[in-house]
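Work Package 4 report. The design task specified in the project plan requires that, given a folded chain encoded as structure tokens, an amino acid be chosen for each position. We show below one input record used in the internal validation round.
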């Protein structure tokens, strides 16, 4: 099996220990966030070799992130350091229900300086899949240029491209630029993994079938639309189906479910599993991730994943997210 490459920004994460507005919280616990970081952790826990292209500030948060990468067996050879910029961080609230409040401190961060020079030294022949999200191109002009350069290099080396839009409007100058860049990247992907609400922002339909048809007709090989508690809809031009997700015991924090889902899909693709088995695994890990507070602590080892899939029933569908 080839390695999987992730590219993006890991951040310090401070999670509120009590409910209420972020400015009133008195106790936070420290962890690490980052959409691509979460996917890297998920893949590595399942035994896949992962490389993570990023840039860290030479500061305590950067050191915390690299320590967590090492603890999770994520290769650090694509990582670089800078003394001039800080590692970004974010605050996350504790929600009674639904998505928690978040606030970023990441403008001009170390990772926002990722550029072509960081990519030129990579030997793409070792990597079977490149996974990126819509966060990297939102970080800065150089990071946006680097995102397209990564895609170009991946294509030249026949490395498959997986793209999760992870739409973060607060990081973009305006909606029009965001949608146009997202669509330019999506159309070049082999695996496109939007949430149904994200796809609606990108192509104005909330019908999973219409979303898949739209991107397949533009050359995407596999479209897998995440539909929250209704699981996911997948299509690749040969087959299409809706796959229910698993019954959860309790939802602790909704953040990171999509990243867990991506780890499930990419691990299965790298292992040569069928589309339906990939989506079942994506659904299982997405559901497992909902049941823990951090953005990546709920991501399972293979033993835990197999036990979860064996002992949990599939949910009955209906009623949207
Ligand atoms: N309420 C739920 N019950 C069971 N499984 C869920 C629930 N919500 C999400 N999931 C699982 O997690 C997957 C990803 O969740 P979702 O559709 O919310 O993706 P997303 O919008 O990318 O998430 P996020 O960006 O918040 O991480 C779903 O496809 C599903 O398998
Ligand atoms: O919101 C972001 O930019 C992050 O990368 C932090 C979180 O870990 C991520 O949103 C989870 O998908």
């Amino acid at each position: 099996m080839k390695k999987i490459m992730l590219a993006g920004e890991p951040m310090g994460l401070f999670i509120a220990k009590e409910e209420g507005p972020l400015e009133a919280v008195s106790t936070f616990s420290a962890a690490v966030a980052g959409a691509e970081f979460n996917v890297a952790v998920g893949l590595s826990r399942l035994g896949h070799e992962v490389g993570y292209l990023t840039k860290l500030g030479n500061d305590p948060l950067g050191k915390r992130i690299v320590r967590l990468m090492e603890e999770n067996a994520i290769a650090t050879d694509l990582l670089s350091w800078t003394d001039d910029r800080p590692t970004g961080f974010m605050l996350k609230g504790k929600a009674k229900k639904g998505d928690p409040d978040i606030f970023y401190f990441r403008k001009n961060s170390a990772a926002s300086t990722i550029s072509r020079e960081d990519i030129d030294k990579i030997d793409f022949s070792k990597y079977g899949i490149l996974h990126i999200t819509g966060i990297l191109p939102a970080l800065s002009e150089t990071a946006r240029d680097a995102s397209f350069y990564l895609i170009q290099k991946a294509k030249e080396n026949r490395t498959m491209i997986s793209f999760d839009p992870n739409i973060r409007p607060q990081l973009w100058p305006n909606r029009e630029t965001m949608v146009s860049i997202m669509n330019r990247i999506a159309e070049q992907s082999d695996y496109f993994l939007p949430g149904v609400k994200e796809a609606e922002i990108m192509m104005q339909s909330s019908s999973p079938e219409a979303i898949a048809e739209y991107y397949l007709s533009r050359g995407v090989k596999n479209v897998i639309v995440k539909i929250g508690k209704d699981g996911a809809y997948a299509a690749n031009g040969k087959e299409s189906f809706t796959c229910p997700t698993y019954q959860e015991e309790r939802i602790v924090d909704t953040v990171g479910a999509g990243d867990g889902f991506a780890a499930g899909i990419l691990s299965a693709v790298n292992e040569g599993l069928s589309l339906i088995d990939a989506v079942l695994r994506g659904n299982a890990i997405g559901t497992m991730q909902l049941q823990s507070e951090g953005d990546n602590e709920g991501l399972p080892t293979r033993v835990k994943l197999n036990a979860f899939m064996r002992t949990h029933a599939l949910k009955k569908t209906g009623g949207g997210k």
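The longest strand covers residues 50-57. Validation will be extended to a larger panel in the next phase.
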